[in-house]
Design goal:
0% helix; globular; two-stranded antiparallel sheet; little secondary structure; 11% strand; three-stranded antiparallel sheet; single chain
Length: 135
């Protein structure tokens, strides 16, 4: 179960500082060329990477530098369910010598269509315009 399926080195070649603007071909690596090199995988040994997202449901990159999932599917990374989809990620090479670093990401709103989130609902940054990691 490879969490970074399109990065043979699992982030070991990705160094700090880092900035992904999520435009087409920037940085030119990973899924859709925007830097994501895998998805958070569930513990099902028979999983297939393309089963964890629907390509027709994404608007990746583009002139605005965003990565929206048009219709979010139900699912959860918490506990036994472990059936989350669309959890794109990338690895970064850090060690104790990397020191303290900040991760900044921006999101488009409103969230949850203006409704208060219910138990186990969450939304994470996969981001509006940029992901920036600085030391």
């Amino acid at each position: 179960m490879d969490a970074f399926a399109v990065d043979a080195k699992n982030g070991l070649d990705t160094k700090l500082p880092l900035k992904y603007d999520l435009y087409n071909g920037d940085p030119g690596t990973g899924l859709y060329g925007v830097g994501f090199t895998g998805l958070m995988v569930n513990k099902n040994p028979g999983y297939n990477l393309v089963d964890l997202y629907d390509e027709q449901n994404l608007i990746a990159g583009g002139a605005v530098g965003a990565f929206p999932v048009v219709q979010v599917t139900p699912g959860d990374a918490l506990g036994r369910a472990n059936n989350q989809e669309n959890a794109f990620q990338f690895g970064i090479n850090t060690t104790a010598l990397s020191g303290v670093f900040d991760v900044q990401a921006r999101m488009l709103g409103p969230f949850f269509n203006g409704k208060k989130p219910q138990n186990h609902q969450s939304q994470a940054c996969t981001s509006e315009r940029e992901i920036r990691i600085t030391t």
